[in-house]
Structures are given as structure tokens and as C-alpha cells.
Amino acid sequence: MMDKVMCLYGSVTGKAMSIAEQIVELGSTKGVEISLNCLGEVGKSWTLEQAKTIIIVSSTTGDGEQPENVIKFWRKLRPKSLRSDHLAHVKFALLGLGDTNYNQFCAG
């Protein structure tokens, strides 16, 4: 039995959310159960401890900044009190969206 997959999105304009919804729908047609959650809902509708396999779809805004609804998730990953292997059990894929016209495209 396959672990449930979580698709997490961070979005300003809704594009990342739309792509995440498409991923969930495609998974459904392939018999893969994928839950859809906003990165900003960490601790409310989902937790990092639940995560086994995640797909993150996130946009950048302005000159490569993260969307507001990603900040809470980022703060959960930053505490120095977390063990370095805290998320070692998690399989993940990341799709970063941004505008290549900016110097800091996807902050990189």
C-alpha cells in the first residue's frame, strides 16, 4: 500500500494553487490519493509529522520573495531545536514558479 501523498501549495495569484489542484486531479485518475493543503495551514489542517511523501508547488512574488502563506511553513522548518534528520523520512518534489524577468528569479 502506498503512503498518502500530500500536495502543498504557496501562492499569491492562485497559479501555484491551480497547478497543485491539477496534480491532485491527475493523481486521482492514476489511482493515487493526494490531499491538497496550503502551506500556510501547517499545524491547522495538516502537520509536518504526517508527511511521508509531499509535492510542494510554490510561486515567488515581487523580486523573488516567498508568498505570505508560505512564511508559517518556513518558520516550522527553521527552529534550531529540530534535529537535523527531523524530515529525513520525507520523500519530496518541489516545483518553484516565478518570473524570469526578475533578477532574483525564485530567490536564486
Could you please describe the fold and organization of this structure?
The chain has 108 residues and is of the alpha/beta class. The protein has 2 helices and 4 strands, in the order E-H-E-E-H-E. The protein has helices at 15-29, 71-77; strands at 5-10, 34-38, 53-59, 91-97. Strands 2-1-3-4 form a 4-stranded parallel β-sheet, covered by helices on one side. Strand 3, helix 2 and strand 4 (91-97) form a beta-alpha-beta unit. The longest helix is centred in the first third of the chain and has 15 residues, at 15-29. The model has no long low-confidence stretch (mean pLDDT 85).
Structural class: alpha/beta
Number of helices: 2
Question: Judging from the principal axes of the Cα atoms, what is the shape?
Answer: globular
Uncertain segments: none
Mean pLDDT: 85
| Record field, number of beta strands | 4
Topology as a string of helices (H) and strands (E): EHEEHE
Quick one: biggest sheet?
Answer: 4 strands, parallel
How much of the sequence is in beta strands? 15-25%
Comma- or semicolon-separated keywords:
108 residues; alpha/beta; 4-stranded parallel sheet; 4 strands; 20% helix; 23% strand; globular
How are the SSEs placed, and which strands pair?
Layout: E1 5-10, H1 15-29, E2 34-38, E3 53-59, H2 71-77, E4 91-97
Parallel strand pairs: 1-2, 1-3, 3-4
Write a short abstract of this structure.
With 108 residues, the chain is of the alpha/beta class.
